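Schema walk-through. Below, the input block comes first and the output block second. Nothing else is stored per chain. Lengths vary across the set, and this one has 360 residues.
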Amino acid sequence: MNDKQNNKIRPIIKLRSESTIRPTKIRIVNPTPKTSQSLIQQANIDSKWQNKLNLLFFIVIGCLIFILLDFFNIRQILLPDILNWKSWTFTQIVFLFSVYVLPSIIYILIKPQFALSINFNVTPVTGLLSILIGFPFAYIMALLNLLLSVLLERIGILNNIVFYGKQIQFFPLNNAVYLLVYLTITCLIPVILIEFSLRGILLEELLIQKKQNHAILFCAAVTGLLTFQFQEFMPYFGLGLLVSMLYLYHQSITATMLCHLSFNITYHYLIIKSSVLNLNLTNSSVIFIEDLMPTIIKGLIATTMFVPLFVVLSQIKRINPLLDSDIIIERHSKKKMPGNKFFNLSFLILILLFVVYAII
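--- output ---
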Protein backbone atom coordinates (compact mmCIF):
# COMPACT_ATOMS: atom_id res chain seq x y z
CA MET A 1 0.00 0.00 0.00
CA ASN A 2 1.55 3.33 -1.07
CA ASP A 3 1.79 6.52 0.90
CA LYS A 4 -1.04 8.19 -0.96
CA GLN A 5 -3.51 5.47 0.07
CA ASN A 6 -2.25 5.56 3.65
CA ASN A 7 -2.88 9.29 3.84
CA LYS A 8 -6.49 8.71 2.73
CA ILE A 9 -7.11 5.95 5.26
CA ARG A 10 -5.64 7.79 8.29
CA PRO A 11 -8.33 10.54 8.45
CA ILE A 12 -11.02 7.86 8.29
CA ILE A 13 -9.46 5.90 11.16
CA LYS A 14 -9.06 9.11 13.11
CA LEU A 15 -12.71 10.04 12.64
CA ARG A 16 -13.84 6.57 13.67
CA SER A 17 -11.66 6.58 16.77
CA GLU A 18 -12.94 9.99 17.74
CA SER A 19 -16.51 8.86 17.26
CA THR A 20 -15.95 5.89 19.55
CA ILE A 21 -14.58 8.01 22.42
CA ARG A 22 -17.21 8.26 25.10
CA PRO A 23 -17.54 11.52 27.00
CA THR A 24 -16.41 11.34 30.59
CA LYS A 25 -19.18 11.78 33.12
CA ILE A 26 -18.31 14.36 35.69
CA ARG A 27 -20.13 13.83 38.94
CA ILE A 28 -20.74 17.02 40.86
CA VAL A 29 -21.11 16.33 44.55
CA ASN A 30 -23.60 18.58 46.21
CA PRO A 31 -22.37 19.37 49.71
CA THR A 32 -25.87 20.06 50.97
CA PRO A 33 -27.27 17.13 53.03
CA LYS A 34 -30.14 15.28 51.38
CA THR A 35 -32.48 16.13 54.19
CA SER A 36 -31.71 19.83 53.78
CA GLN A 37 -32.24 19.67 50.01
CA SER A 38 -35.65 18.07 50.43
CA LEU A 39 -36.64 20.60 53.09
CA ILE A 40 -35.56 23.53 50.91
CA GLN A 41 -37.35 22.16 47.83
CA GLN A 42 -40.49 21.42 49.80
CA ALA A 43 -40.41 24.81 51.48
CA ASN A 44 -40.22 26.51 48.08
CA ILE A 45 -43.42 24.89 46.87
CA ASP A 46 -45.42 25.35 50.05
CA SER A 47 -48.16 27.93 49.96
CA LYS A 48 -47.64 31.31 51.57
CA TRP A 49 -49.78 30.58 54.60
CA GLN A 50 -47.85 27.39 55.28
CA ASN A 51 -44.53 29.26 55.14
CA LYS A 52 -45.80 31.69 57.76
CA LEU A 53 -46.70 28.90 60.16
CA ASN A 54 -43.97 27.59 62.44
CA LEU A 55 -43.81 25.15 65.32
CA LEU A 56 -43.16 27.89 67.88
CA PHE A 57 -46.55 29.42 67.07
CA PHE A 58 -48.32 26.19 68.07
CA ILE A 59 -46.05 25.79 71.11
CA VAL A 60 -47.06 29.27 72.30
CA ILE A 61 -50.72 28.32 71.88
CA GLY A 62 -50.05 25.18 73.93
CA CYS A 63 -48.38 27.31 76.62
CA LEU A 64 -51.45 29.54 76.74
CA ILE A 65 -53.69 26.49 77.17
CA PHE A 66 -51.55 25.17 80.02
CA ILE A 67 -51.39 28.56 81.77
CA LEU A 68 -55.17 28.92 81.54
CA LEU A 69 -55.65 25.44 83.00
CA ASP A 70 -53.24 26.31 85.78
CA PHE A 71 -54.92 29.68 86.36
CA PHE A 72 -58.33 28.05 86.85
CA ASN A 73 -56.64 25.45 89.07
CA ILE A 74 -57.85 22.44 87.09
CA ARG A 75 -55.35 20.24 88.93
CA GLN A 76 -56.94 21.08 92.27
CA ILE A 77 -60.39 20.30 90.87
CA LEU A 78 -59.37 16.91 89.49
CA LEU A 79 -56.99 16.07 92.34
CA PRO A 80 -58.29 17.82 95.47
CA ASP A 81 -55.52 16.43 97.67
CA ILE A 82 -52.55 18.49 98.76
CA LEU A 83 -49.61 18.91 96.41
CA ASN A 84 -47.94 15.48 96.27
CA TRP A 85 -46.26 13.28 93.70
CA LYS A 86 -49.57 12.41 92.03
CA SER A 87 -50.64 16.00 91.51
CA TRP A 88 -47.15 17.05 90.41
CA THR A 89 -46.96 14.17 87.91
CA PHE A 90 -50.38 15.07 86.56
CA THR A 91 -49.31 18.70 86.11
CA GLN A 92 -46.12 17.62 84.35
CA ILE A 93 -47.99 15.33 81.95
CA VAL A 94 -50.51 18.06 81.10
CA PHE A 95 -47.66 20.51 80.48
CA LEU A 96 -45.75 18.12 78.21
CA PHE A 97 -48.86 17.24 76.24
CA SER A 98 -49.99 20.85 75.83
CA VAL A 99 -46.59 22.34 74.97
CA TYR A 100 -44.88 19.59 72.99
CA VAL A 101 -47.11 16.69 71.96
CA LEU A 102 -50.17 18.51 70.66
CA PRO A 103 -48.28 21.32 68.85
CA SER A 104 -45.94 18.80 67.18
CA ILE A 105 -48.85 16.65 65.97
CA ILE A 106 -50.64 19.64 64.48
CA TYR A 107 -47.48 20.94 62.83
CA ILE A 108 -46.56 17.54 61.36
CA LEU A 109 -50.02 17.25 59.84
CA ILE A 110 -49.41 20.58 58.09
CA LYS A 111 -45.75 20.05 57.17
CA PRO A 112 -44.98 16.31 57.28
CA GLN A 113 -41.62 16.77 55.51
CA PHE A 114 -39.99 18.01 58.71
CA ALA A 115 -40.91 14.85 60.63
CA LEU A 116 -39.89 12.56 57.76
CA SER A 117 -36.44 14.15 57.57
CA ILE A 118 -35.53 13.46 61.23
CA ASN A 119 -32.51 11.17 61.47
CA PHE A 120 -32.34 8.76 64.43
CA ASN A 121 -29.14 6.98 63.37
CA VAL A 122 -26.10 7.41 65.59
CA THR A 123 -22.75 5.65 65.73
CA PRO A 124 -21.84 3.85 68.99
CA VAL A 125 -18.91 6.20 69.60
CA THR A 126 -21.02 9.31 69.11
CA GLY A 127 -23.76 7.90 71.33
CA LEU A 128 -21.34 7.08 74.14
CA LEU A 129 -19.63 10.48 73.98
CA SER A 130 -23.00 12.22 73.89
CA ILE A 131 -23.95 10.49 77.14
CA LEU A 132 -20.64 11.25 78.82
CA ILE A 133 -20.58 14.93 77.93
CA GLY A 134 -23.96 15.59 79.54
CA PHE A 135 -22.81 14.74 83.08
CA PRO A 136 -20.00 17.32 83.52
CA PHE A 137 -21.88 19.95 81.53
CA ALA A 138 -24.90 19.68 83.84
CA TYR A 139 -22.69 20.19 86.89
CA ILE A 140 -20.97 23.17 85.27
CA MET A 141 -24.27 24.86 84.39
CA ALA A 142 -25.78 24.10 87.82
CA LEU A 143 -22.72 25.56 89.55
CA LEU A 144 -22.77 28.70 87.39
CA ASN A 145 -26.46 29.08 88.11
CA LEU A 146 -25.80 28.74 91.84
CA LEU A 147 -23.00 31.32 91.84
CA LEU A 148 -25.15 33.75 89.86
CA SER A 149 -28.06 33.33 92.27
CA VAL A 150 -25.73 33.96 95.25
CA LEU A 151 -24.50 37.15 93.59
CA LEU A 152 -28.02 38.37 92.77
CA GLU A 153 -29.19 37.54 96.30
CA ARG A 154 -26.31 39.51 97.81
CA ILE A 155 -27.12 42.64 95.80
CA GLY A 156 -30.83 42.36 96.58
CA ILE A 157 -32.28 41.27 93.25
CA LEU A 158 -33.28 37.79 94.46
CA ASN A 159 -34.77 36.93 97.82
CA ASN A 160 -33.28 33.44 97.99
CA ILE A 161 -30.51 31.55 96.29
CA VAL A 162 -31.32 28.71 93.94
CA PHE A 163 -32.34 25.42 95.56
CA TYR A 164 -32.19 22.15 93.62
CA GLY A 165 -34.48 19.17 94.00
CA LYS A 166 -37.88 20.76 94.55
CA GLN A 167 -39.63 18.13 92.44
CA ILE A 168 -38.04 15.12 94.11
CA GLN A 169 -39.38 16.26 97.49
CA PHE A 170 -42.87 15.23 96.37
CA PHE A 171 -41.80 11.58 96.03
CA PRO A 172 -41.31 9.10 98.90
CA LEU A 173 -37.64 8.63 99.72
CA ASN A 174 -35.68 5.39 99.34
CA ASN A 175 -38.26 3.70 97.16
CA ALA A 176 -37.13 2.25 93.82
CA VAL A 177 -40.60 2.41 92.24
CA TYR A 178 -41.13 6.07 93.04
CA LEU A 179 -37.58 6.84 91.94
CA LEU A 180 -38.29 5.19 88.59
CA VAL A 181 -41.48 7.22 88.20
CA TYR A 182 -39.61 10.40 89.10
CA LEU A 183 -36.78 9.79 86.63
CA THR A 184 -39.24 8.81 83.89
CA ILE A 185 -41.45 11.88 84.29
CA THR A 186 -38.65 14.34 84.99
CA CYS A 187 -35.80 13.06 82.82
CA LEU A 188 -36.80 10.54 80.15
CA ILE A 189 -40.15 11.63 78.70
CA PRO A 190 -39.24 15.36 78.49
CA VAL A 191 -36.00 14.43 76.70
CA ILE A 192 -37.82 12.57 73.93
CA LEU A 193 -40.51 15.21 73.45
CA ILE A 194 -38.24 18.26 73.73
CA GLU A 195 -35.53 17.00 71.39
CA PHE A 196 -38.00 15.74 68.81
CA SER A 197 -39.80 19.09 68.81
CA LEU A 198 -37.05 21.65 69.34
CA ARG A 199 -34.09 20.05 67.59
CA GLY A 200 -35.80 17.71 65.14
CA ILE A 201 -38.33 20.25 63.87
CA LEU A 202 -37.81 23.77 65.21
CA LEU A 203 -34.04 23.94 64.65
CA GLU A 204 -34.37 22.51 61.15
CA GLU A 205 -36.99 25.12 60.41
CA LEU A 206 -34.85 27.93 61.83
CA LEU A 207 -31.83 26.84 59.78
CA ILE A 208 -33.86 27.46 56.62
CA GLN A 209 -35.17 30.82 57.77
CA LYS A 210 -32.24 32.36 59.64
CA LYS A 211 -28.46 32.48 59.81
CA GLN A 212 -26.96 29.51 61.55
CA ASN A 213 -25.73 31.34 64.67
CA HIS A 214 -29.11 33.06 65.05
CA ALA A 215 -30.90 29.72 64.67
CA ILE A 216 -28.78 28.16 67.43
CA LEU A 217 -29.37 31.10 69.79
CA PHE A 218 -33.12 31.18 69.18
CA CYS A 219 -33.44 27.41 69.69
CA ALA A 220 -31.41 27.59 72.90
CA ALA A 221 -33.48 30.51 74.18
CA VAL A 222 -36.72 28.63 73.50
CA THR A 223 -35.31 25.65 75.41
CA GLY A 224 -34.66 27.86 78.43
CA LEU A 225 -37.92 29.81 78.23
CA LEU A 226 -40.04 26.67 78.14
CA THR A 227 -38.87 25.75 81.63
CA PHE A 228 -40.99 28.71 82.88
CA GLN A 229 -38.65 29.04 85.88
CA PHE A 230 -36.06 31.78 86.36
CA GLN A 231 -33.66 29.45 88.16
CA GLU A 232 -33.70 26.90 85.33
CA PHE A 233 -33.45 29.29 82.38
CA MET A 234 -29.66 29.60 82.29
CA PRO A 235 -28.84 25.87 82.67
CA TYR A 236 -31.31 24.89 79.95
CA PHE A 237 -30.27 27.77 77.73
CA GLY A 238 -26.74 26.36 77.94
CA LEU A 239 -28.06 22.86 77.27
CA GLY A 240 -29.92 24.20 74.23
CA LEU A 241 -26.67 25.62 72.85
CA LEU A 242 -24.82 22.34 73.40
CA VAL A 243 -27.39 19.98 71.91
CA SER A 244 -28.08 22.33 68.98
CA MET A 245 -24.39 22.26 68.04
CA LEU A 246 -24.33 18.51 68.67
CA TYR A 247 -27.27 18.09 66.29
CA LEU A 248 -25.51 20.15 63.64
CA TYR A 249 -22.28 18.20 64.10
CA HIS A 250 -23.81 14.74 63.73
CA GLN A 251 -27.27 15.30 62.19
CA SER A 252 -28.71 12.80 64.70
CA ILE A 253 -31.61 13.43 67.04
CA THR A 254 -30.62 10.36 69.06
CA ALA A 255 -27.27 11.95 69.98
CA THR A 256 -29.03 15.03 71.38
CA MET A 257 -31.49 12.86 73.30
CA LEU A 258 -28.67 10.91 74.95
CA CYS A 259 -26.85 14.10 75.91
CA HIS A 260 -30.06 15.68 77.23
CA LEU A 261 -30.86 12.55 79.24
CA SER A 262 -27.51 12.46 81.06
CA PHE A 263 -27.84 16.21 81.66
CA ASN A 264 -31.28 15.75 83.25
CA ILE A 265 -30.19 12.83 85.42
CA THR A 266 -27.29 14.89 86.78
CA TYR A 267 -29.26 18.12 87.19
CA HIS A 268 -32.42 16.63 88.71
CA TYR A 269 -30.96 13.74 90.70
CA LEU A 270 -27.19 13.36 91.09
CA ILE A 271 -26.42 16.88 92.35
CA ILE A 272 -29.20 16.42 94.90
CA LYS A 273 -28.73 12.86 96.15
CA SER A 274 -24.94 12.57 95.87
CA SER A 275 -23.16 14.10 98.84
CA VAL A 276 -20.05 14.68 96.72
CA LEU A 277 -21.94 16.63 94.05
CA ASN A 278 -24.62 18.30 96.18
CA LEU A 279 -24.85 22.02 95.43
CA ASN A 280 -27.59 23.08 97.85
CA LEU A 281 -26.46 25.70 100.37
CA THR A 282 -28.29 26.00 103.69
CA ASN A 283 -27.74 29.64 104.60
CA SER A 284 -26.63 32.18 102.02
CA SER A 285 -26.10 34.97 104.57
CA VAL A 286 -22.98 33.34 106.02
CA ILE A 287 -21.43 32.05 102.80
CA PHE A 288 -17.92 33.28 102.03
CA ILE A 289 -15.79 32.66 98.99
CA GLU A 290 -13.68 30.25 101.05
CA ASP A 291 -16.77 28.13 101.66
CA LEU A 292 -17.39 27.87 97.92
CA MET A 293 -13.83 26.94 96.97
CA PRO A 294 -14.31 23.12 97.19
CA THR A 295 -17.41 23.40 95.02
CA ILE A 296 -15.61 25.66 92.54
CA ILE A 297 -12.74 23.16 92.33
CA LYS A 298 -15.26 20.43 91.49
CA GLY A 299 -16.61 22.70 88.76
CA LEU A 300 -13.10 23.11 87.34
CA ILE A 301 -12.68 19.33 87.36
CA ALA A 302 -16.00 19.00 85.52
CA THR A 303 -14.77 21.56 82.99
CA THR A 304 -11.57 19.60 82.36
CA MET A 305 -13.76 16.57 81.65
CA PHE A 306 -16.15 18.49 79.42
CA VAL A 307 -13.64 20.24 77.15
CA PRO A 308 -11.87 17.15 75.73
CA LEU A 309 -15.19 15.38 75.24
CA PHE A 310 -16.51 18.35 73.28
CA VAL A 311 -13.32 18.53 71.20
CA VAL A 312 -13.53 14.82 70.35
CA LEU A 313 -17.21 15.12 69.44
CA SER A 314 -16.39 18.04 67.16
CA GLN A 315 -13.56 16.11 65.49
CA ILE A 316 -15.64 13.01 64.67
CA LYS A 317 -18.40 15.18 63.21
CA ARG A 318 -20.01 14.61 59.86
CA ILE A 319 -19.79 18.33 59.09
CA ASN A 320 -18.32 21.43 60.67
CA PRO A 321 -21.24 23.81 61.18
CA LEU A 322 -19.19 26.49 62.92
CA LEU A 323 -16.37 26.98 60.43
CA ASP A 324 -17.69 25.83 57.05
CA SER A 325 -21.37 26.73 57.19
CA ASP A 326 -21.35 29.15 54.27
CA ILE A 327 -19.35 26.74 52.10
CA ILE A 328 -20.69 23.31 53.03
CA ILE A 329 -24.28 23.76 54.13
CA GLU A 330 -26.48 25.57 51.66
CA ARG A 331 -29.42 25.75 54.03
CA HIS A 332 -27.45 28.06 56.33
CA SER A 333 -27.14 30.75 53.68
CA LYS A 334 -27.77 34.35 54.65
CA LYS A 335 -30.86 34.58 52.48
CA LYS A 336 -33.97 34.38 54.62
CA MET A 337 -37.24 32.79 53.65
CA PRO A 338 -40.69 34.21 54.46
CA GLY A 339 -42.14 33.69 57.91
CA ASN A 340 -39.46 35.20 60.15
CA LYS A 341 -41.70 38.01 61.40
CA PHE A 342 -44.32 35.49 62.43
CA PHE A 343 -41.71 33.50 64.32
CA ASN A 344 -40.32 36.61 66.00
CA LEU A 345 -43.81 37.58 67.18
CA SER A 346 -44.32 34.10 68.66
CA PHE A 347 -40.92 34.36 70.34
CA LEU A 348 -41.79 37.70 71.95
CA ILE A 349 -45.09 36.27 73.23
CA LEU A 350 -43.20 33.33 74.73
CA ILE A 351 -40.87 35.72 76.58
CA LEU A 352 -43.90 37.58 77.94
CA LEU A 353 -45.54 34.33 79.07
CA PHE A 354 -42.31 33.25 80.74
CA VAL A 355 -42.03 36.48 82.72
CA VAL A 356 -45.71 36.49 83.73
CA TYR A 357 -45.82 32.82 84.72
CA ALA A 358 -42.49 32.92 86.59
CA ILE A 359 -43.59 35.98 88.59
CA ILE A 360 -47.01 34.51 89.38
